[in-house]
Design brief:
- This protein is 19% helix and 33% strand.
- The chain has helices spanning 2-28, 93-101, 176-187, 386-415, and strands at 31-36, 43-48, 58-63, 74-76, 78-79, 83-88, 104-111, 114-126, 139-141, 154-156, 164-172, 209-210, 213-215, 225-228, 239-249, 255-263, 272-274, 278-282, 287-288, 292-294, 303-307, 313-315, 320-323, 327-335, 341-349.
- Strand 5 (78-79) and strand 6 (83-88) form a beta hairpin.
- The chain is extended, with a radius of gyration of 38 Å.
């Protein structure tokens, strides 16, 4: 009877799971791409792999969780028989409320002519605004002056002084790939948003400073905040910086972003590079070569290393040479700036052995200067401790005998 009940429950459970599995399978076949098209946080999502009818009209809803029911539906104006573009605008109240609350939202699409026909079940979408897209600035030159004029200030659409507090801090960028790409974009008047994938994605956790000026009291929408971190932007040193901005919300999610601050000094070209002419290294050790730059304050000191014969010795990206066998090889260092080159002939020698004072000359000399060579007639290792081992053996035999005697005695007594 119990077996039949278990079978029936299993059938019911399977029947309930099949629709959920089918819907999940349908959603996994749908492709999603996102386009941030405005610095006010608005974004478009393109869904592919759908089955739509061009004779029908469609609408979408955005919710905070997959389980939440859609209360407000919005028309979809861009769609084909297999794709649809959903425009999530922060100027629309219910859409903005979701973006302000969560980093992951859920979109549903339904047939407008048949509201019960759901074309796309609740599908997760990324609502987090990329850090470099958060404000109306991507790059600010160091020393830039601000005032209380809204049109000239740092603006953020999703926050204002009525619903949040604004903070900032600086962090120097040391990644040469980012700096070089930035210089390239600057020279070619390119789009600094191309740096987005290279830039840091981990936010600071402390040392936040309040903005010098933060305004935009809008209790109706909670949008369009503006102000400035400093009246005159001033980073601690030369270089390229993140100016992190952070907005702590009142019953809203915290929002983070950054603006790049350019305090790079003019590049100083490299005239030349040099190495010692020759060096030796023993087998079993390593050698570190350091190039000399001319001028010493050249901006770009990135170099590459190579060995003419890696069977003799290899060299890594830091100039560390590892010998492999006796012989000579030419180590070459090449600068990234101007492709300047310098060479050093490195000779690998056998390892030097210390001399002893013994008559044979093969022993090692201790600190007192006397030979530590052992008598070849003396056995190596520890001498066996005969007395101790004999005692252990006798004790073990005695204990075993006592055990056997006790066992037999007990068995005889039990049989009485």
């Amino acid at each position: 009877m119990k077996k039949k009940i278990l079978i029936i429950l299993l059938i019911i459970l399977t029947a309930l799971c099949i629709p959920m599995i089918t819907k999940a399978a349908e959603n996994t076949s749908v492709g999603i791409t996102r386009n941030i098209y405005s610095n006010n946080g608005s974004m478009k999502f393109s869904f592919t792999g759908l089955e739509l009818n061009k004779e029908h009209e469609y609408e979408f809803g955005l919710t905070k969780t997959a389980a939440t029911q859609v209360e407000q539906w919005h028309d979809i104006t861009e769609y084909t028989t297999s794709s649809a573009t959903v425009d999530v605008m922060t100027t629309t109240t219910d859409l903005r409320d979701v973006i302000n609350a969560v980093d992951t939202g859920y979109i549903r699409i339904r047939d407008k002519s048949d509201p019960n026909k759901i074309v796309l079940e609740a599908t997760a979408v990324d609502l987090k605004i990329p850090f470099l897209n958060l404000t109306n600035y991507t790059v600010i030159p160091n020393g830039k002056e601000f005032d209380s004029n809204q049109s000239q200030g740092i603006q953020i659409a999703l926050r204002c002084a009525s619903n949040s507090t604004a903070y900032y801090q600086y962090e120097k960028i040391t990644d040469t790939e980012i700096i070089n790409k930035y210089k390239e974009l600057k020279a070619n008047k390119g789009d600094y948003l191309e740096l987005q994938s290279l830039l840091k994605q981990t936010t600071p956790t402390s040392n936040w400073i309040k903005w010098n000026y933060w305004n935009g009291y809008n209790y109706a929408t909670g949008m369009n905040g503006y102000g400035y971190t400093q009246e005159s932007i001033s980073v601690p040193d030369s270089g390229l910086y993140y100016m992190w901005v952070y907005f702590s919300g009142n019953n809203l999610k915290n929002v983070y972003g950054y603006i790049l601050v350019d305090n790079l000094q003019p590049d100083i070209a490299l005239d030349g590079i040099s190495l010692p002419k020759t060096q030796t290294v023993e087998l079993g050790t390593t050698l570190k070569l350091s190039p000399t730059f001319n001028p010493s304050n050249a901006t770009n000191k990135i170099v590459t290393w190579s060995s003419s014969d890696e069977s003799v010795a290899t060299v890594d990206n830091a100039g560390k040479i590892t010998p492999k066998k006796l012989g000579s090889t030419i180590i070459t260092v090449t600068s990234q700036d101007g492709k300047k080159k310098a060479t050093c002939t490195v000779t690998v020698t056998s390892k030097t052995s210390s001399s002893g004072s013994s008559s044979t000359g093969t022993g090692s000399t201790g600190t007192s200067g006397t030979s530590s060579q052992k008598d070849p007639t003396t056995a190596s290792g520890k001498m066996p401790q005969t007395g101790i081992y004999s005692g252990i053996i006798i004790t073990t035999i005695a204990l075993a005998g006592i055990g056997i005697f006790t066992f037999k005695k007990y068995r005889n007594l039990r049989d009485i």
